[in-house]
Amino acid sequence: MADDTASASEDATRSYYDTHDVDAFYDAVWGGEDIHTGIYTDEHEDVAIASRRTVERAADTVAGLLGKESTVLDLGAGYGGPARYLAERFGCRVVALNISEAQNERHRATNAERGLDGLIEVVTGSFHDIPFSDGQFDVVWSQEAFCHSSDRERLLGEAVRVLEPGGALVFTDLMAAEGASVEALRPAVSRLGVDALATVDFYRRTLTGLGLRRIDFDDHSGQLLHHYVCVTEETRRHRPELRNTISPAYLDSLLINLPLWVDAARREQLRWGVFHCRRA
Ligand SMILES: C[S@@+](CC[C@H](N)C(=O)[O-])C[C@H]1O[C@@H](n2cnc3c(N)ncnc32)[C@H](O)[C@@H]1O
Fold this sequence. Notes:
Helix content is 47%, strand content 20%. It is built from eleven helices and seven strands. The chain has a single domain (4-279), classed as Rossmann fold (3-Layer(aba) Sandwich), CATH 3.40.50. The chain starts with a helix and ends with a strand. It has helices spanning 4-17, 20-30, 47-60, 81-90, 101-113, 152-161, 182-189, 200-209, 223-237, 239-245, 248-266; strands at 71-75, 93-98, 120-124, 137-143, 163-176, 212-219, 270-279. It is of the alpha/beta class. The structure holds S-adenosylmethionine (SAM). S-adenosylmethionine binds at residues 10, 13, 17, 34-36, 76-78, 81-82, 97-100, 103, 126-128, 143-145, 148. S-adenosylmethionine (SAM) is lined by residues 10, 13, 17, 34-36, 76-78, 81-82, 97-100, 103, 126-128, 143-145, 148.
């Protein structure tokens, strides 16, 4: 059971992702598969295509470790887009841990439709208390989930604990720029159920302290502005049909919150990219 700091953000996240409103929004705007920042190669590209490219790039960093005999743990697995990609590309087993049972139900159903339920196990639980024993996984993977944690030192400790020696931790996360004002970002960040984002320096320092080596950060911060402009425009474009599927209050709150992320990205107050490192 997580302590109070971690469990406050867990409750907020669970109730956020378990609502029908949030489910319908991610389905309409991201395609309900990958829900993280995209890497765009063309300004007219769909959010879903760019978001899939992020999975491909992150997977390239651990391709040498993955095959039919390996197992990946995906922390905060969402609807399972990354888990299915990894299982299909490498034939590896994936354990997908996620706190939202509503997402997990959809995740399991999609895996079964695609014949991937034999390779992917979907588990309900929190990355603050990973329900597996030490050193079990070849790769621990996560995309845009650590931003929901109010105890990131604890979750990183857990991620490293379950990684086998020589295994890799790879993750993407929304972060604050060094020196960005926590107060100024708070109105945007509050939608994630936390007070503040991590920084690149925090991750480097904490991962080093946990004994990880070859810590690399592929900096794609320049993608954030375009991504949030696209997501905001898509939300506005889908507004008429979203009005029929999600509550007006949630839609209005999104249309207030998303432009705050656009503004923060424009002011270069945010960072984003792919971290990858190895356990000694
Ligand atoms: C923005 S979504 C990203 C989903 C997925 N990783 C992807 O990229 O498509 C964030 C995910 O983190 C999960 N999450 C947040 N806090 C969590 C926690 N404490 N333990 C496990 N999962 C958590 C949410 O339920 C959600 O699925």
